Amino acid sequence: VFKFLGAISVDLGKDRIKPFLPTILTPLYRELNSTYAEQDPTLKNLSQEIIELLKKLVGLEAFSVAFSSVQKQANQKRAVRKKQRALQAVANPDIAARRKLKRHKNKAETKKRKIEFLRPSYKAKKARSHGLKDLAMVE
């Protein structure tokens, strides 16, 4: 998809690409700023190359305006999601408690996996599965 975006931007040229610049930059920005554990470095490099190509094609000023708008939009979305999560904790405490329990359970499993990776001889105890009992609110 990134190669396609680069090819389209080169094909359209300087004047016709400007209205579509924020649309093209959105996935590139998302890839550059992603913090996933299993991130592909080739994708990050490709997005960086396409951003450099767009910078040369459109000019630094127009590119900067479009890039800052994409950045601002992404930050606003993050803020809205964070606010909704905080409001949900107050409005629906049972859902928030379930989410918190699940997060703590995943954290413990990740810790066990990390210890097993660092010390292969060590075997962590696996928690018994109680099905719905794990999701129930602790009293």
From TrEMBL:
Domain U3 small nucleolar RNA-associated protein 20 C-terminal as annotated: residue spans: 1-116
Cellular component annotations (GO), alphabetically ordered: 90S preribosome; small-subunit processome
Organism (species): Nothocercus julius
Protein name, as recorded: UTP20 protein
Segments traversing the membrane: none
Record InterPro entries: SSU_processome_comp_20, UTP20_C
